[in-house]
Amino acid sequence: MGRAPCCDKKGLKKGPWTPEEDKLLVDYIQANGHGSWRLLPKLAGLNRCGKSCRLRWTNYLRPDIKRGPFTAEEQKSIVQLHGIVGNKWSMIAAQLPGRTDNEIKNYWNTHLKKQLRRMGLDEPPLGPAAGCPAARHMAQWETARLEAEKRLSMLSSSGAAATTLTAAAAAGPLPPVDATKDAVKQEAALPGDDSSAASNEVEPADAVDEYQMFLDFAGEELGLFHGRHGGFSLFPPIDVLAESSLDTAF
DNA sequence: AAAAACTGCAACCGCTCCTGT
DNA sequence: AACAGGAGCGGTTGCAGTTTT
């Protein structure tokens, strides 16, 4: 598939960003939004490729980026999420508001990996295939959550719902649909799963019911998880989650 | 004090996926 | 259905700063 042309073929600048370049980028995005990343450098007066601009913005210049060291809670979340989804840094980042995937990736590679090794723990097995029963439960939970989100997002995009899941995510740390697309695809590809095809015509009321079922399921699963892991929480308590998500989304 | 080794982070590269035609 | 362009993601690299010898 068409690969983005390499920057150096066009004589574009690479390497560290100067404060002047940062300012140009920030000023432009604040005034116009990023729009097409490919066109942005030209419009903003930058001698950079769009890719470089996007990276600089998402990893460094975005105003909502949280700076400073990771908290113990964030560390715990990263370790747990990594055990569940593996190196899906964007998915992990979606659970940690203000943190970027690049930052989390770096933190994992430089700090947490070593820390786990020092503690005598090998790197945990990656992905939903992880052998630990709790991880399997979480993987099932994640699958169900993604399915519910997928349906909800279809609803939203068709205009049937007043707000999007992103709004719900703002109320609680459910990730935006974008961040979960890999898993959604996996889910959609499951043999014998005809729900994704049928979901195109899902009725609003059905979606609400399904989302509620998902929340109920998640509640049970999380209860189990809490019980086994001494109160660790990836997500807010389920009653809060249910209340805020449903209230905001509907 | 100087050199070597190590560490952490910003940025780049190349691949895959998504979307429009 | 096939193709092309654009966006996003994960892996890797380069280098400045810090620590150790």
Automatic annotation (TrEMBL):
* Keyword field: DNA-binding, Nucleus, Repeat, Transcription, Transcription regulation
User: Does this UniProt record's set of keywords contain Calcium?
Assistant: no
What's one Pfam family here? Myb_DNA-binding
Which is one GO molecular function term here? DNA binding
Compartment list:
Nucleus
Q: Which domain of life is it from?
A: Eukaryota
Would the keyword Nucleotidyltransferase be found if you checked this record's keyword annotation? no
Q: Which SMART domains match?
A: SANT
- List the record's Gene Ontology CC terms alphabetically: nucleus
Every copy of the HTH myb-type domain together lies at 9-61, 62-116
Q: What are the residue boundaries of the Myb-like domain, all occurrences included?
A: 9-61, 62-112
Signal peptide residue numbers: none
Q: Which PANTHER family match?
A: MYB FAMILY TRANSCRIPTION FACTOR, TRANSCRIPTION FACTOR MYB17
Name under which the protein is recorded: Uncharacterized protein
Q: According to the entry, what is the taxonomic lineage of the organism?
A: Eukaryota, Viridiplantae, Streptophyta, Embryophyta, Tracheophyta
